[in-house]
Design a protein that fits this description.
about 50% helix, globular, 10 helices, disordered C terminus
């Protein structure tokens, strides 16, 4: 009887080990994530994208830059987009998906990538996801910020054009600040940071992006991050969301101050 129990224990241990390794292999073989971060002008999307690049070591992919490089390098894909880049012609519907697929096959994307500017047509997005579904998973994160809050945030913005730092001009943070803490250059307001210009840009952004976010929401793929608060709090939630969904661990560099939410 003891000998039989011993054989049973050995069999169970072997089976458990096999299942454990199989599960590990399945997890390791799971497609990496392409993270797409949406956010209206002034929400801090560009700032957060750079922070995610530092904390997860994902390459940042810009489709506009990719297209320009293909045209300048004279590639087959570039020849299809040359008329668009030079003369403002129509961009072939299938071109951006092809360019993105080509870029994501590079070795630096093996663990994932950050997509800086997702194509703003619903059909192109569906085409890209269809082509890449076997190789990548998409994580769609939207910084959900009200227009009123964005207008207030942008109106408070002071910029150092020498080193690029952005400051908050609110009474609680300003302390009569007129010069940059980093390089001592004078701080200025951007010419486009007037309420009228901001409202116009926000309206254009909503018209372009709302149809896409609706598709993601209907498919249960959209993760909303509340944006009417401090940028440090927003980024903390973005990090936690990505870590929870992907299982990856961020290096979590200190959030740089006095950097304020940029575009």
């Amino acid at each position: 009887m003891c000998q039989v129990l011993s054989w049973v224990l050995v069999l169970l241990c072997s089976l458990s080990s096999s299942l454990l390794f199989c599960g590990s292999d399945e997890q390791n073989d799971a497609p990496p994530y392409v993270i797409v971060l949406y956010g209206a002008p002034g929400s801090g999307r560009a700032t957060f994208t750079v922070r995610l690049w530092k904390d997860f070591a994902f390459p940042i992919i810009s489709l506009a830059t990719l297209l320009t490089n293909h045209v300048l390098d004279g590639t087959v894909l570039g020849s299809k987009g040359q008329d668009y880049c030079i003369n403002g012609g129509d961009l072939p519907q299938e071109l951006l998906p092809a360019i993105l697929c080509d870029r994501l096959l590079h070795p630096d994307c093996e663990k994932g990538a950050l997509l800086e500017d997702m194509p703003l047509t619903a059909s192109q997005v569906l085409d890209i996801k269809k082509q890449l579904s076997s190789r990548f998973r998409f994580l769609i994160v939207n910084i959900d910020t009200s227009d009123e809050y964005l207008i207030q945030r942008v109106e408070r913005r002071l910029v150092c054009y020498t080193c690029g730092y952005v400051y908050d001009d609110s009474e609680s943070n300003r302390k009569q600040k007129t010069y940059c803490d980093i390089c001592s250059s004078p701080l200025q307001r951007r010419q486009g940071d007037s309420p009228e210009v901001i409202k116009s840009r926000l309206e254009a952004y909503r018209n372009q992006v709302s149809p896409l976010l609706k598709i993601y929401k209907e498919k249960g793929e959209l993760l909303q991050i509340p944006g009417d608060r401090k940028v440090e709090e927003i980024y903390k939630d973005i990090i936690q969301t990505i870590e929870h969904v992907t299982g990856l661990a961020a290096s979590k560099h200190p959030f740089e101050e006095p950097l304020l939410a940029q575009e």
